[in-house]
Amino acid sequence: MTDGIEAVTRSALALALDAASLRQQAIANNIANANVLDYVPQRVSFDAQLADARRSMAQTGRLDTFALGQVRPHLEPALDASGLPETVKLDAQAADMARNAVHYQALVKGLSRHLSILAMAAGDGRK
Q1: pTM over 0.85
Q2: CA 45 to CA 11: how far, in whole Å?
Q3: Quick check: 80 and 54 in contact, CB under 8 A?
Q4: Are 62 and 68 within 8 A, CB to CB?
């Protein structure tokens, strides 16, 4: 079954909003536990799943909501190159939180516009 562009757009925006929300939670946890002994900071990752979705798109020539539905952001420990937990730098975490908040707001605005376009199309262009 071929999904319409609106379904793929909605799925992509929902996935991005989920990732931004989870990223905000991870950053908040990192800030709250910065001084806790042996705390391992967290970060959001879904690179491997996105790579699978890209491969699926390359093979089929299209991206569908099923492929996007398989991509799920998850928390993983933030480790450095040697495999040790990274140290929590509060200034970097605060900057990441601000950047993520702006990203989230842009996604919400994009979803709002997408839904407005769909509403206009459903109403035959009438307001």
Answers
A1: no
A2: 18
A3: no
A4: no
